[in-house]
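ok, trying the design again with the full structure, not the truncated one.
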């Protein structure tokens, strides 16, 4: 079965509204002969004459009368679909967005982001899920709306990416820790007992590479799965945590943070989303909120 020409719906709607081939042609900016041909095609497609001559004019058949309201609604619905999106009304917006982030992002940026969302769009709910890997499938499949992280080689090439902030690794110890006093050398840092974060990506591998170039190696006393756990242990012990600075600002309150005694490269934390959501007004607004919240939160050393 061949696909019908949906352009005929608009033609039929105008013909039924005008009841005249000439007036319908003017309205659609067609020649009378082109409109007559379109009417002939409509008659062939529907199997009904639709408009028949009555004196000098045309009158609709019962089938045409039956179709008039239905066709008019179809045309209106089609125009609504093809029309640009309406202006976003944040106060009336009711929607749930899922954000996938590394540990520490919610704790550090979540309060300011939630306050911003509540003030501008109280009907919006944010669902935060933990980012355990760099698989792009959740974004591609629509399970996740936004994601933060360091863009790696495994990221899907079609994803949209926008930088949020630059970050670096720092050392963190409890107040009164011996490393908080005196000159911090690579040797003193390496000799202390450390907490290792086992997940790759934003892990502390660059620190170990920098120490290895000096023939030094950290004394890893324990391994944990995330930065907040590492900081909690460091807060209550003499262990040293090495964590991203911007990513853990609020988590380090009341602790002593220090620049590492070896050079490590900075890295960029970015916002990622699927291109199908690129033009969505509500999604665009949320992206702006995340960017501004991250930009407005300065590093705390």
């Amino acid at each position: 079965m061949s696909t019908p020409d949906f352009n005929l719906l608009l033609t039929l709607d105008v013909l039924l509204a005008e009841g005249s081939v000439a007036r319908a042609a003017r309205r659609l900016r067609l020649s009378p002969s082109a409109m007559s041909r379109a009417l002939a095609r409509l008659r062939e497609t529907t199997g009904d004459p639709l408009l028949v001559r009555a004196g000098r004019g045309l009158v609709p058949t019962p089938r045409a009368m039956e179709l008039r309201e239905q066709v008019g609604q179809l045309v209106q619905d089609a125009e609504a679909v093809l029309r640009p999106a309406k202006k976003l009304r944040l106060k009336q917006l009711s929607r749930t967005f899922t954000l996938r982030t590394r540990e520490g992002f919610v704790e550090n940026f979540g309060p300011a982001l939630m306050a911003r969302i509540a003030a501008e769009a109280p009907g919006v709910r944010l669902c935060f899920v933990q980012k355990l890997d760099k698989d792009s499938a959740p974004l591609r499949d629509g399970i996740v709306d936004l994601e933060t992280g360091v863009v790696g080689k495994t990221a899907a090439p079609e994803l949209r990416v926008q930088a949020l902030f630059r970050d670096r690794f720092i050392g963190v110890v409890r107040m009164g820790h011996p490393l908080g006093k005196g000159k911090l050398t690579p040797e003193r840092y390496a000799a202390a007992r450390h907490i290792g974060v086992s997940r790759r990506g934003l892990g502390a591998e660059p620190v170990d590479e920098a120490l290895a170039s000096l023939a030094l190696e950290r004394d890893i006393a324990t391994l944990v799965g995330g930065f907040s756990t590492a900081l909690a242990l460091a807060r209550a012990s003499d262990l040293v945590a090495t964590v991203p600075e911007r990513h853990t600002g609020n988590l380090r309150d009341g602790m002593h943070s220090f620049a590492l005694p070896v050079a490590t490269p900075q890295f960029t934390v970015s916002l990622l989303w699927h291109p199908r959501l690129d033009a969505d007004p509500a999604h665009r607004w949320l992206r702006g909120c995340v960017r501004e919240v991250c930009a407005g939160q300065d590093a705390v050393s």
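Keeping the full-length input from now on. The chain has a mean pLDDT of 88.
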